[in-house]
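Homework help board

Subject: predicted structure for assignment chain

Our instructor gave us this sequence and asked us to write out the predicted structure in token form, then describe one feature. I got the tokens but I'm not sure how to describe them. Can anyone check?
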Amino acid sequence: MTIKSLEDIEKLRVEREAFSIYFSSPNCSVCRVLKPKLIAMLKESYPKIESYYVDTALHPEIAAQLGFYTNPSFIVYLNGQEFLRRSRSISLQEIAESLERPYRIMF
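My token output:
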């Protein structure tokens, strides 16, 4: 699902127990390579974390309001609170290691 406003994010924070948002733009080659790998890792290892997307070319204000000024960027919310934030150099292994324990406790 594509997020188109900050209100969408606030609604998710209230309604969803766990979700992630991936920020990128169509002209970012690293973003195009990383996104499918990240989504696949989340679906396989953390299926209860729903994945969302912000196109920063269309909605730069959303990324800016959340303090993201570079692509790719990634954020995870657990129980309505920001839990994990990464930008530019995103390691799938580091994300997996960071999510492992809290995910197992929650689910």
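Reply (TA_rk): Your tokens look well-formed. For the description, you could write something like this. The chain has one domain: 6-106. That's the kind of observation they're looking for.
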